[in-house]
Amino acid sequence: MLAQIQVSPRPSGTDDDRYAYVDAAIAVIQQSGLVYEVGAMGTTIQGTPDQIWPLLRAVHEATVHAGASAVSSVIKVGQGKDDAGPTIADLVGKFRA
Fold first, then answer.
1. Mean pLDDT confidence for 7-30
2. pLDDT band, residue 57 (cuts 50/70/90)
3. pTM of the model
4. Is 76 helix (H, G, I), strand (E, B) or coil?
5. Which of the chain's ends, N or C, has fewer CB atoms near its CB within 10 Å?
6. Mean per-residue pLDDT over the chain, rounded
7. Which run of H or E residues covers position 70?
C-alpha cells in the first residue's frame, strides 16, 4: 500500500522554527521504520494497510501535539490486490538519476 499525506498545521511552526509542526509530523513517519519519501508538497509512505492507517492518524495528530492550534491533512491512498501494489521505487525510480 502507498499513502501520501500532506499536513497543513496552523500555524506551520513557531517564530524560531518556521516548520516545527510539519517537522513533528515527519518525525513520526521517520520513527515508523517504513519506507518513505519526503516531497515538497507531501510525504509518500509504503507499507501494509495495518501499518499505514494508524500511522496516518498519528502523523496528522502529531502537529497538534507539537503545538499547532489546528491541522488539515490531505491523504491519498493506493493499494493493490493482496498488498502487491506498486512500490515507491516502481513509480518514480526511472525518473531518478
1. 96
2. very high
3. 0.91
4. strand
5. C
6. 94
7. strand 70-78
d(CA 30, CA 83): 21
- DSSP-derived pairing of the beta strands 35-39 and 42-46: antiparallel
CA distance 88 to 92: 6
Question: Quick one: CA dihedral 43, 47, 53, 59, positive or negative?
Answer: negative
Dist. CA 41–CA 7, nearest whole Å: 9
**H helix or E strand, kind and range, residue 24:** helix 20-32
Percent of the chain with pLDDT over 90: 88
CA-CA distance, 53 to 76, in Å (whole number)? 11
C-alpha dihedral over 94, 29, 3, 54, to 10 degrees? 160
